[in-house]
Amino acid sequence: MTSIHDSTIGDAFARTGEFLTGNPMVRADADMRHVLDAQVELGAKSLEACLPAEARRQPTLEDAVRKVLERAGREPDDQGVDIDDIVITGPEGEISARIYRSRMMDATATPPMILYIHDGGWIVGSPEKCDATPRALAKKTGAVVVSPAYRLAPEHKFPAAHDDCYAVWLWLIEEGASLGGDPGKAAVVGEGAGANIAINISLQAHAERVAMPVHQVLIHPIAGVDMSTPSYVENMRARPIGTPTMQWFFRHLLESRAETADPRLNLVERTDFKGLPPATLVIAEIDPLRSEGELLGEALHKQGVSVDVRFYEGVTQGFFGLGSVVNKAMFAQSHVANNLVEAFAASRRKI
């Protein structure tokens, strides 16, 4: 297992400030704070203060990035990527999906494919609102990226989102060529709740002996249900996602507390990772999910899965797509893209 910490000068001063104030946000890098402050200026409420429908209308970090760029006199960059919308048949009806293709794609080669699964705690988020990461991945890897609009809770309780995304994976490996990509070289990438779904796709595909991803990218995954871990305690007041927000997500996701024992949610206690594809695991410092992400990395490594763990200090949950204004997001995107390109070059999908 490789593990890299991206540190900043002044961490000791930041931790002293946190100790004195009880506020984890004193550890945030300046460019991360600019985005978070812009989100507040746009009127964003804490999600746990909202009903789900209102929460889905709140300004996002991507909205905040646009405000930061506007202040700097810069226009948002489409990254040379075109989008199309399609419909896929799912387990309970149609699933809309957004397709990303780089305009710089080599017309003489068949590109690899990525199934990207957005964050939002299974309650909020959509391909339209979670656009930056799949756009960056399409540009940096040359892959055809598929971003599904899976069903959200509380209207559709657990495991509806998992079922939808697994159905999209099965469609991709069978029909992905219709999008001009090579389904034999397909990876999964997820953020937060989407990362939880991504690794569950690998697990279910392995169990059912269907084609697995050639690589899995797990960006600050929801990997456990224990909210007494060190990072949950430290980041009670973190923005944009603190401990109360995570509690709100699970309250709306589940029919009953008994479902927290489901191994699809409590990944850190699983013992069946052996045989899964290599993984890149991205962890953010200012995030309630940090501790369980670290535990997941250890579990994958101990069970024989090749895992590259990258720890980014000074950033929060949701940072990965902010590469146009947050330096560590740009670094993280480049590292993930490099790992994906290497996986596409070296691997065919395995059963």
From TrEMBL:
It comes from the Bacteria. InterPro entries: AB_hydrolase_3 (IPR013094), AB_hydrolase_fold (IPR029058), GDXG_lipolytic_enzyme (IPR050300). One of its GO terms (molecular function) is hydrolase activity. It holds the Pfam family Abhydrolase_3. Keywords: Hydrolase. Residues 114-320 form the Alpha/beta hydrolase fold-3 domain. This is Alpha/beta hydrolase. It comes from Paradevosia shaoguanensis.
